[in-house]
């Protein structure tokens, strides 16, 4: 369905990005380097997505050139980096309508009544991607998958940095700064928007296996926990990127399945080139193309958590 013409009150922009999490922010930066101005819509009251909303103090180790930084620190650095590009943010606004006009551009309205018209729309809405896609009459097989992470302090300290380890039963554990650890368990759960974490689950299901694998973990103090969402691509648990098949001007960066923060810098670079020139130049992201939705092609990684 299309709408016939541009409302007089609509904001016209080169690119409209839905989602101000890491994938959206890196997209703003890379588009800005190519001279493309962006407006960004996000339902939260601040940038950073779940990084800033749920675990702002969590250490992050997988950003190039930054040995370690907090989640909020990373968001703050990104905001400083993109400031010269002049992006315009619309926080606290949820997308309520997304349609294509007769002239080929997209019309978007938010819950606050703000209206936009853009030639290019990038859906980077994380666990909410399928809902946004449905407004544009496109299918995005992305589910919100609740996850829990537990942060603990062992009584016995290691005098070296232990490895990141996994168990065949889905448990995982990795070191953090200050001789601390975070841990969790990969489990099958019903999709949904649930953000709580459960201390009893740690004591009953996570801790016993940790102590079996690492006996010194029999004595530890659970410091805190986080509950959040993975945006799981249910086709193959890898990102869906690039142009949406058959819809000119609509791009997606969704379904990262837990790898979004790690992959966001490369995705921002590659997709900005695709938007600007019609092809990938620096990084070929075609293997992760959204065409997988309509084909039998899958990107399957074995023994990767």
Q: Can you describe what's shown?
A:
- This protein has 305 residues and is of the alpha/beta class.
- It folds into two domains: 2-141 and 235-294, 3-Layer(bba) Sandwich (FAD/NAD(P)-binding domain), CATH 3.50.50.60; 143-231, D-Amino Acid Oxidase, subunit A, domain 2 (D-Amino Acid Oxidase, Chain A, domain 2), CATH 3.30.9.10.
- The protein is 23% helix and 30% strand.
- The radius of gyration is 20 Å and the shape is elongated.
| Biggest sheet overview | 9 strands, mixed
Which strand-content bin applies to the residues?
25-35%
CATH fold call of the largest domain: FAD/NAD(P)-binding domain
Helix content: 10-25%
What CATH first level of the largest domain would be assigned? Alpha Beta
CATH superfamily of the largest domain: FAD/NAD(P)-binding domain
Overall tally of domains: 2
Order of helices and strands: EEHEHEEHEEEEHEEEEHEEEH
How far the N terminus sits from the C terminus, by CA atoms, comes to 40 Å
Tell how many strands the DSSP assignment holds. Answer: 16
Q: Spans of 5+ residues with little confidence (pLDDT < 50)? A: none
């Amino acid at each position: 369905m299309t709408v016939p013409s541009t409302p007089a009150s609509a904001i016209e922009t080169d690119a409209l990005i839905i989602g101000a999490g890491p994938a959206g922010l890196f997209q703003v930066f890379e588009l800005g380097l190519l001279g493309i101005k962006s407006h960004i819509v996000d339902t939260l009251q601040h940038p950073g997505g779940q990084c800033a909303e749920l675990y702002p103090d969590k250490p992050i180790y997988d950003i190039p050139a930054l040995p370690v930084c907090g989640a909020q620190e990373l968001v703050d650095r990104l905001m400083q980096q993109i400031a010269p590009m002049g992006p315009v943010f619309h926080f606290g606004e949820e997308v309520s309508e997304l349609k294509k006009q007769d002239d080929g551009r997209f019309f978007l309205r938010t819950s606050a009544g703000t209206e936009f018209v853009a030639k290019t729309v990038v859906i980077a809405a994380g666990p909410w991607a399928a809902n946004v896609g449905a407004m544009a009459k496109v299918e995005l097989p992305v589910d919100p998958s609740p996850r829990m992470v537990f942060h603990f302090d062992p009584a016995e300290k290691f005098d070296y940095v232990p490895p990141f380890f996994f168990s065949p039963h889905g448990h995982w554990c990795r070191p953090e700064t200050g001789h601390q650890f975070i841990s969790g368990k990969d489990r099958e759960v019903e999709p949904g928007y649930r953000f709580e974490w459960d201390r009893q689950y740690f004591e009953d299901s996570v801790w016993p296996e940790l102590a079996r694998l690492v006996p010194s973990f029999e004595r530890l103090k659970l410091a805190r926990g986080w509950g959040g969402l993975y945006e799981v691509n249910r086709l193959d648990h890898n990102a869906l990127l690039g142009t949406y098949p058959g819809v000119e001007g609509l791009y997606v960066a969704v379904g990262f399945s837990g790898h979004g923060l790690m992959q966001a810098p490369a995705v921002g670079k590659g997709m900005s080139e695709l938007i600007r020139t019609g092809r990938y130049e620096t990084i070929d992201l075609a293997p992760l193309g959204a065409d997988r939705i309509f084909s039998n092609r899958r990107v399957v990684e074995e023994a990767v958590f």
